[in-house]
Amino acid sequence: MSGSSILPDEALFADFREKCLSAENWFNKYDSNGMQVWVEQLPPNKGNNVPKIHKIKCKMAIKDVSAATMFDVLLDSQYRKKWDPTMLESFDIARLSATADVGYYSWLCPKPIKNRDVVTLRSWKVMDDEYIIVNFSVKHPKYPPQNNLVRAISILTGYYIKSTGPKSCTFIYLSQADPKGSLPKWVVNKASQVLAPRVMRCVHKAGQNYPEWKQQNSPNQKPWLYPEQNTLPMMDPAELSIQRADSLEHVDESSKVDAQDSEDSS
Fold first, then answer.
1. Could you tell me if residue 132 is inside a domain?
2. Closest Cα to residue 196, out of 182, 177, 175, 210?
3. Which of 1, 6, 102, 175 has the fewest CB atoms within 10 Å, counting from its CB?
4. Domain that holds residue 146
5. Residue 164: C-alpha distances to residues 17, 170, 171, 200, 235 (Å)
6. Residue 220 sits in a domain of what CATH number?
7. pLDDT, tens digit, for every residue of 98-156?
């Protein structure tokens, strides 16, 4: 990030794009029906310790929805309430520039793990046939961590969407996050092998249904593409700072077993 500004610069977008497209240091965990999921390849002798930072990458070949539609789906906060099954609460707080905002998101975690929330700075970039959305955790003076939720950290998370035809695209989700808390191994496995593919299928379905929904819900309102439509209050990015993981309370959930199946699913 350049200069004193917290806003992502060209280098950050380029770095994120490269991570999405690179195969180096990724271990394939799932490959089925045009979808793949990878986790970061770790050096050997890590034992049963789950690393603090979880890196996961999902890629899907979408044959019936355009890249532009998938981009709209991800940035349309009104529509998110319709399709996101794990969302507890989500709202945009303020805009920082024509292509950046700050928002709040909380989500359900598999029981008995505590639910999580994040405050993130999100920024996006539209190119000829590519779309990139990135986010990372920030501290916002008015949205401190809450007692009933664990504040997670997005180090760099986002989407890379590349058009492969008028109604098709490659859709990649990449997350580098610290969920906070020493999570048990089954949670990490479940996230890569069960939850990630489920979420990807959900987003794809949301893309299929979006054009019809949008037709009935302010079809011309797309503030992420037309900044003059944005009614969010303006905020100076300098009021935000990057949220570091070590400044948040540590929660040890490593002894929790899955309510559904307690055996190690690795």
1. yes
2. 175
3. 1
4. 10-41+52-243
5. 16, 7, 10, 18, 37
6. 3.30.530.20
7. 999 999 999 988 777 889 999 999 999 999 999 999 999 999 989 999 989 989 899 99
